[in-house]
Amino acid sequence: MAHAGYAIELKGISKAFGPVQANKDIHIAVPKGTIHGIIGENGAGKSTLMSILYGFYRADSGEIFINGKLTTIPDSQSAIRAGIGMVFQHFKLVQNFTVLENVVLGAEEGALLAGSLSKARKVLSDLSREYELDVDPDAVIEDLSVGHQQRVEILKALYRQADILILDEPTGVLTPAEADHLFRILKGLRDQGKTVVLITHKLREIMETTDNVSVMRRGTMVGTVKTSETSPEELAELMVGRKVLLEVEKTPAMAGKTVLKVEDLRVRDEHGVERLKGVSFEIRAGEILGIAGVAGNGQSELLEALGGIARATGRVELNGVELPLSGKGADGQSRRAAGIAHVPEDRQALGLIMDFTAWENVAFGYHNAPEYQKNGLFMDNDALRADTERKMERFDVRPPIPTLAAKSFSGGNQQKIVVAREIERNPDLLLVGQPTRGVDIGAIEFIHKQIVALRDQGKAILLVSVELDEIRSLSDRIAVMFDGRIMGFRDPETTDERELGLLMAGMTGKGEAA
Amino acid sequence: MERLPKWADVVLVPLISLLLAAVIAAVVIVAIGQDPWEAITVMVQGSVMNSYGWGYTLYYATSFMFTGLAVTVAFHASLFNIGGEGQAQLGGLGVALCCLMIPWPHWSLALIGATVAAAAFGAAWAAVPAYLQARRGSHIVITTIMFNYIAAAFLIFMLVDVLRPDGQMDPATANFPETVALPTLNEIPVVNLLFTSKVPANITLFIALGMAVVVWALLWRTRLGYAIRAFGKSEAAAKYAGISPFGIIMVAMLISGGLAGMMAINNVMGEAGRLLQNSASGAGFIGIAVALMGRNHPVGVVLAALLFGFLFQGGAELGLWTKIPIEMRIVVQGLVILFTGALDMMVRMLLTWVFNLLRGGRAARGAV
């Protein structure tokens, strides 16, 4: 018997995609007026479950109760009618529409737009006041920050009178301050009696925000606990099925000679806007330099300039040899030949060809390597497949099938393929961008170990990450970037999150704006 | 949405598309008061039921293989080469100049020379749009279409004012010397056991089949092919890997244009024996449909080229032996292109739905 005190109750939900059982007999009950976290590794079935709830998929079996009432949800319109709103990881906004137009889109009333718009304007201003959801209704979406765009998504759901709000990995693109603001909004919504389901893989968010948390692993629900009665360690163990090291184990750096020397590096984007405004630093052998900063402050351009993707000016020396920054010799092939390996920030857009097989991706960037050639004319696909099998075994890529397309692997395993490819080249300098973005906890631990191991072999590593915890635990030195400049260098042992946070926001130690 | 098994995607989808095209074509034939069964009988009789019909079907198919492969190579670099028609006409010019200006002692040498000339002229014609795309970002679809018109006008100029022998009325070159005439299938030992009467299909067929193998090896067995395919999937990723976009666009289009140009050895050198106006007669455009239907794979291209060869020859037979006007073949071709190209997704979605239904039924029974 369903309980009327539950906003959502799922009973025995199962869903299979071909041979893959994405959800297996899932039971979950979300009490009204609470924030309920759902965590699990990538591929644990969180998104499938929510897609069933939002009418994108139909469950093979099982029952859905909304506010105690048995409900079928064949499409998203029915989900909206049942009072469910969803905020996706990738926003579904029309970029060149205003906030108001986006909110009304699909919920227009009458033939003329004006009526709907003026009604929406009033509702919006009420909602803004009530929940700290202040957004200028006449602003065009593409001019808004990511955090504000997310608020528009929430407004869209509330405008459709959602009582239950589902957010899928909402903080992936937010600054720490924006994330805090989001959580204040969510708590406000809860206090007004709304129910919030928060899907995330970040344990800290779960601990800080939720009332209850359900843990999923490999398509099953392993347990639901009160957040106040659990710990991050316990949750991590539930998620992965074994004890997990949340801290990186590493010895102090034994830094040697300077490997990379960067002086006054500048990059302009295609519109001629300077994105990297004169950056200088050095990395020594056996050292990890971590670049902290909110996404979009020049870190990507730094990696691209060093990786031979973007044109730059300034001076870059690798082992005392100057590298060309534009024209001939400023390309990915030359950089690899010089001894720079690059794990790019966006593995799906840059690091892999998603339609290619794993073994084709192992050759990516190294398709000219002599060991992958035969008879002078052809690529040695057999050698490549054998090499891929070896790499997959060493880096524990699952499933270890070289002929599988890259897109068929989970995020963590895709990243392992990229990391294996780049690290196994034994580079002098490794560029790593967001090594663990969208990667499950088990794989994070593994990838971190690999990076530290490479450092311990006396290689130089440039680590760019928006995850402050990752930067702090891996780096031997931290540089903070803001608006295309390095705001300062810090020692991870002596600095704290507050100090780094201020630098990330463009404040120097004394508190004045830079 | 779950995906189709590969065999269904490769075999079933085109077959159903074809069937749908045939059904609609039958409706059209009924609508103009003719008998669709008679039509299909005449088409099959005239194109694949005897060696004479095959001789024509294979002749057309040969041309379509070249242009289909041309579209395929460019497509793998994510370039839509619509300019096969113009490139094939320029290839014809290359063949004509080569055959008329050099006194070849034997057709085999002439064939090598003409092949190189055809490929070079076709590639040169593709080079300009390629350069404009690679350096200036001018869209290759627009520029290659425009180059088709320029090619047509240029060919008319060449045929009327430059290459036409004095006293000849039609805009065409002089006949090529007898020594460069390519052996037709009925003149080739062993093959002539099958083809007893004079047919237009000639030795170029084997070059086309050879090129299908070469294209396959190029795309899936060489570094260049790897780079082309990687670039075609993602330009950003290709830059990360150090693959030069400029280089790939140029090389892929040169190969594509070269293949389209090579078509001319079939029709200009192998069949007509001189260069006529509008020599490519639409084969460049049919190559697009052939590549689409052949899933941009050389094996598929060869099969699709045979199908279009059949439609071409069968359509001509319709005009000869029935009251159905010859334009009917354009209708049928259009329908095939519509269903296999444009409405491909529709068929695939329907089929996916059917498969999921079957699979769901099986899973439900398995669960009991």
From TrEMBL, chain A:
It comes from the Bacteria. CDD domains: ABC_Carb_Monos_I, ABC_Carb_Monos_II. One of its GO terms (molecular function) is ATP binding. This is ABC transporter ATP-binding protein. Residues 8-243, 260-508 form the ABC transporter domain. SMART domains: AAA. Pfam families: ABC_tran. InterPro entries: AAA+_ATPase (IPR003593), ABC_carbohydrate_import_ATPase (IPR050107), ABC_transporter-like_ATP-bd (IPR003439), ABC_transporter-like_CS (IPR017871), P-loop_NTPase (IPR027417). The lineage of its organism: Bacteria, Pseudomonadati, Pseudomonadota, Alphaproteobacteria, Rhodobacterales. Keywords: ATP-binding, Nucleotide-binding. SUPFAM superfamilies: P-loop containing nucleoside triphosphate hydrolases.
From TrEMBL, chain B:
It is a multi-pass membrane protein. The chain crosses the membrane at residues 12-33, 53-75, 110-128, 140-160, 199-219, 240-263, 275-294, 301-324, 330-355. This is ABC transporter permease. It comes from the Bacteria. Signal peptide: none annotated. It is found in: Cell membrane. Pfam families: BPD_transp_2 (PF02653). It comes from Paragemmobacter amnigenus. Its main location: membrane. Keywords: Cell membrane, Membrane, Transmembrane, Transmembrane helix.
